[in-house]
Amino acid sequence: MALADQPRILLVTRNLPPLIGGMEKLNHHIFLELGKRYAMAVAGPEGCASYLNAEAATVATFPTAPKSAFVMGSIRAAWQMGMSFRPDLILCGSGATAPAGFLIARRLGIPLITYLHGLDIVTSHVLYKSIFLPAIRASTTLITNSSNTARLALAHSIDARRLHILHPGVEMDVPEDIEPAAFRQAIEAGDRPILLSVGRLTERKGLYQFIVNCMPDLVRQQPDILLLIVGGEATDALSAKQGIGIQLTETIQQMNLASHVKLLGRIDDARLSQAYSASQLLLFPVLDLPGDVEGFGMVAVEAAAHGLPTVGFAAGGVPDAIAEGVSGYLVPPNDYQQMSKTILRYLSGESQISKDSCKQFANAFSWASFGEKLSNIVSPLLKPNDLLPITEHP
Fold first, then answer.
1. CA–CA separation, 296 vs 170, rounded Å?
2. pLDDT on residue 238
3. Could you point out which of 21, 153, 182, 292 has its C-alpha 20 to 30 Å from the C-alpha of 383?
4. Is the omega angle on the peptide bond into residue 332 within 30 degrees of 0, that is, cis?
């Protein structure tokens, strides 16, 4: 069957390039993977069309800020594309676009899928709870990015019969000519053991607490240790505390850790691959905050794809992204003493995880596998079918 004769899917999401982050990468791959099987259209953020290689007639855009312009713009764009493209199914990339997806799905009498992340459930804003959560609950099918997000969804009265767990994917085609030695030379790291943190600078990532509670002890016992922090402020997020970078810089200076902690800011994918390959451990000391939760932990799987293990707190959806003793180590939340001990044991060689073990774990999360599992969720909705019970797609 020609692609033009295939069922039509409209992806409605705020999270696409040119915005940067794990959710943006996820939604981009949702578009790419479903596009192999179905005819696709998008209602997405301004500037996304050039990243999608899609026909202009199948993309409608909206502003991402301020919040009021985003909400109204997403509804207009979804309605415009829905009425012109006439999809057979709507897929919302997060709860933030669920109202827009719900309105056009109801108008056309077609199924609605919403992909849920941790913040889609725990956000406490009154208007969100009164407008967005009802639209989420009205979805024909819901996908969560981790088992923890699924538990949160069930606790917020979302029907288990409509729920699937599908973890985000990872790029397994790691370049062979990464040259980690060149990266070390560029940052003047020499042979020092490198701890790496990757992600947007948000309070939830727990870097301030890690520096305060762990770095002094790590430096005492491993005087040449170096922490590299990759990522910038979450300026594109709908709600995120700003100024984390300034707070970290001031704390590093006050604690005389400038020779042990470096903030690299945002770097491109090629240099990030170098950073993964040049490091000894990825750190993921995330916090469970009121109204904020780590939905999954894609960077831990990305690190594993490069053969790099992760030490992280077992908070939020992180346990789905780290296999104990296989791709890293899980530490009880907020146990900084155990976090330091685990890092030092690994650096000393007392405990080891092989690169092959990490890569084998990551392979189960390949984007190709993700696409197959997502298609298995989508396809029953494109023909009459009973609701399926909650299903995990590891």
1. 12
2. 63
3. 153
4. no
Distance between CA 7 and CA 247 in Å, rounded?
Answer: 50
Q: Say yes or no to pLDDT of 387 above 60.
A: no
Strand order in the sheet with 194-198: 261-265, 226-230, 194-198, 281-284, 310-313, 328-331
Question: Dihedral of CA 9/14/15/17: which sign?
Answer: positive
Homologous superfamily, domain 3-169+366-393: Glycogen Phosphorylase B; (3.40.50.2000)
Parse the chain into domains and list their residue ranges: 3-169+366-393, 180-363
pLDDT computed for residue 243 by the predictor: 79
| Token pair 């040259």: residue | 179
Give the tokens for residue 161. Answer: 């019969």
Neighbours of 344 (CB within 10 A): 17
State both tokens at 16: 């696409």
Residue-wise pLDDT for 170-179, tens only, equals 999 888 788 8
Interaxial angle between packed helices 298-305 and 22-34, expressed in degrees from 0 to 180 and rounded to the nearest 10 = 70
